[in-house]
Amino acid sequence: MQRGVKVNGDNYREVLLKEKLLQRIKEISGDNFIIQQDSAPAHRACDHWPPNSPDMNPVDYKIWAVMQERVYEKRVNDVDELCQRLLSVWHSIGQNVIDKAIDQWRARLTACVRLSTSKRGSF
What we know:
The protein is an all-alpha fold. The protein is built from 5 helices and no strands.
């Protein structure tokens, strides 16, 4: 992709995905992979993939929320302190938090598939 080119839906699909990313991903993992996107405008432009797929990522829907709550229990004074807290909290997250996130995954996946199927005509 050329410097200064705005990433829109067409550029994202045709250049970044088809010409670059997908080929490299297949080299690394074969045909067994899933692309997970956030809701950036280029990602949701006429895609056949749910634009809010972070709903299906335990880190996005559970872990980051726990981290945010713990990091900001007390006021953060500067960037260095923020970095330290992020690292400290990340390392302190227990297996029980991860297990709860994974337990929610099937219900979230089912809801996303149901919603995607009901809106298929609008993609």
